[in-house]
């Protein structure tokens, strides 16, 4: 099992991060991908895969953090990101994307421009994109209809857009990841989307420390909860959990270009 999206560097893990990681391996995980949210985290994150190859990282700027960054520095940040990606060590570009609630602090035009920069870097460096999209799917679709596609692909992180929107992203070749909400009692849209996604495009995540699955909802999530999410996905798909776990693991390793070592290592 590979957790394709876990903010293990978040401050909420400061008190017990080593124990959280140990619980993840004990739960059967053999890979965790940590997406950056801002430029100040890039260098520290790049140290992690050097210490443990089971932990891989993505580098990017989360749209929710753009309001905290001066707009005039966007170009400089993207240039620095380009230089870091050129050195190697990152398995993906992101987390990046579009965020509706953040428009008041970072106008849509700026979010789109920064996302275009991330997509260009993904194309240049041959890396997949960890895509965040919250309440701005029409704008993202408009962008992706005109933007050159990264050869390594795009992963729609914690997808919640429903089946109809999913069909556009499927046509464009996207992968999809699901988190804790697929286990929630009121889940409808993510389950509908889950059922139309091609099996080879499906992976799983916890989005820790957020979106904890049942029975931990409302608490801090952690990567060791990934089996609960896979169980919820398997139930919705009507297939055995172990079959889904193996397939999503293989999909993740293929998407991230074998960045994660095989389980036997």
UniProtKB/TrEMBL annotation:
This is TatD family deoxyribonuclease. It comes from the Bacteria. The keyword Hydrolase applies. CDD domains: TatD_DNAse. PANTHER family: D-AMINOACYL-TRNA DEACYLASE, HYDROLASE. It comes from Corallococcus praedator. Keywords: Hydrolase. Belongs to the metallo-dependent hydrolases superfamily. TatD-type hydrolase family. The lineage of its organism: Bacteria, Pseudomonadati, Myxococcota, Myxococcia, Myxococcales. SUPFAM superfamilies: Metallo-dependent hydrolases.
């Amino acid at each position: 099992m590979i957790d394709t999206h876990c903010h293990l560097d978040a401050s909420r893990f400061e008190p017990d991060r080593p124990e959280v990681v140990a619980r993840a391996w004990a739960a059967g995980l053999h890979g965790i991908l940590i997406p950056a949210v801002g430029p100040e985290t890039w260098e520290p994150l790049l140290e992690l895969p050097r210490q443990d190859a089971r932990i891989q990282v993505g580098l990017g700027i989360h749209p929710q953090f753009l309001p905290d960054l001066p707009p005039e520095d966007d170009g400089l940040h993207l240039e620095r990101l380009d230089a870091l990606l050129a050195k190697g060590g990152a398995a993906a570009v992101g987390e990046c994307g579009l965020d509706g609630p953040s428009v008041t602090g970072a106008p849509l035009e700026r979010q789109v421009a920064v996302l275009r920069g991330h997509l260009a870097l993904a194309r240049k460096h041959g890396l997949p994109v960890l895509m965040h999209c919250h309440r701005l799917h029409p704008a993202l679709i408009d962008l992706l209809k005109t933007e050159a596609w990264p050869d390594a692909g795009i992963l729609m992180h914690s997808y919640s857009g429903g089946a109809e929107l999913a069909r556009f992203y499927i046509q464009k070749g996207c992968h999809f990841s699901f988190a804790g909400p697929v286990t929630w009692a009121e889940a409808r849209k993510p389950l509908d989307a889950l059922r139309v996604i091609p099996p080879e495009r499906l992976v799983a995540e916890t989005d820790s420390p957020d979106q904890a699955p049942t029975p931990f909802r409302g608490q801090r999530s952690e990567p060791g909860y990934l089996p609960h999410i896979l169980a919820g996905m398997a139930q919705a798909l009507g297939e055995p959990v172990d079959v889904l776990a193996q397939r999503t693991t293989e999909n993740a390793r293929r998407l991230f270009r074998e960045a994660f070592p095989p389980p036997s290592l």
